[in-house]
Task: inverse folding
């Protein structure tokens, strides 16, 4: 029992959104490790069945002292009424914060870069203190794995989620020097169609599971159109080797 | 002397581009620390006089065993014939790689996200093995410091360097849900003009020195137009609190 609890004047706990990096457990930061070690409660997203990627990344640093709150839902949230899952998780997390317990939500990559953390953030930030520990994003990890700069000098770079409409994707790709298309998954046939139409096949690289043991890097022409996982990415850099 | 050197068949060393994160020394990764510990030679960018930010971030982990190669130039490279500096540094680094010594270049943020590492990469990657250790980018660190998501759901997000032309900046800002304008520096008056014209002042936040002790976060209307440092950033998120 904390001093605050003994005095009956419990201070609210802090919610931490902790980026644990893109997959390689070595790409976690010292700050993420410190926060994870210090909090009594962890929450983590996971599929309906099976392991949480974010928890797996941090697993070597967990010593069994945490209460853990799983947040389970299908990988492709768009197909699913996810609001209720976040509502339930937010209530459970808030109950811990009310007791004065800090809670760390483990987030793949970076919490604020297209991360599901923001759905908890939106439900909790008005009533409780929130801090975000930025992490190595899959965007930077992908460029490192491919061995090619994301952007340089005065390049304009655009990040586009795979689900956006085909004509919008085509217009934006036409306009920029560098682009990352994220959340590729089942949208790969559409994305490949656009890239072929713009004659950018040679400038495009496909990657899935960046920095993990099952990482795949390939040219776009060699990818099975039906088998791209949700967490795959396509990088297009028109200036090619112009950084030399 | 290594076995290879004894046998007169020296294997080339590897060049590592090591992201050390945005400024807070706790935002360095375990992998960056391991590579730094294991290599015999470090190189780091620095201003003509004074300390290297990248080296300062890693300083607590340096034990004096490294040979160090400073790469000194003015902060705003565009004003300066930088090519010769990189040519000289590449020759010095290549001489170490030829001896079989691995060399780690310390990079603020992430090496491949608008980093000066790519100028060394372009000079060395054809002849020597190169590996990049991705780091926490100032982009993600800035969003964490501001306490507001960079992008979510199907947002299109664009990154624009401050030096691009005013009309291009305006067109791109019109088109996207979320934007980061990096390398603000002396381009702030132009950038603010565009943001005012598009009526986005309430959606814009200014930050400099993210995660460092001298971090500044403010609304754009409160920033001194003449005093923005080169490493400052403006985030614009049109959907505001739409992640709730």
Result:
């Amino acid at each position: 029992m904390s001093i605050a609890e003994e005095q009956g004047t419990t201070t609210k706990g802090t919610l931490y959104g902790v980026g644990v990096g893109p997959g390689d457990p070595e790409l976690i930061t010292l700050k993420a490790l410190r926060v994870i070690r210090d909090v009594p409660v962890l929450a983590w997203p996971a599929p309906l069945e099976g392991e949480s990627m974010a928890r797996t990344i941090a697993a070597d640093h967990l010593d069994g002292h945490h209460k853990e709150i799983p947040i389970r839902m299908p990988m492709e949230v768009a197909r699913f009424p996810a609001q209720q899952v976040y509502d339930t998780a937010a209530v459970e997390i808030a109950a811990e914060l009310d007791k004065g317990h800090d809670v760390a939500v483990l987030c793949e990559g970076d919490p604020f870069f297209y991360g599901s953390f923001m759905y908890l953030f939106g439900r909790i930030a008005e009533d409780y203190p929130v801090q975000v520990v930025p992490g190595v994003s899959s965007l930077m990890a992908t460029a490192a794995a491919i061995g090619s700069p994301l952007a340089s000098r005065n390049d304009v770079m655009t990040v586009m989620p795979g689900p956006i409409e085909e004509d919008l994707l085509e217009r934006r790709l036409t306009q920029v020097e560098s682009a990352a298309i994220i959340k590729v998954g089942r949208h790969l046939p559409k994305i490949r169609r656009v890239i072929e139409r713009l004659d950018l096949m040679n400038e495009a690289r496909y990657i899935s599971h960046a920095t993990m043991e099952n990482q795949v890097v390939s040219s776009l022409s060699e990818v099975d159109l039906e088998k791209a996982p949700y967490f795959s990415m396509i990088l297009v850099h028109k200036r090619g080797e112009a950084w030399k």
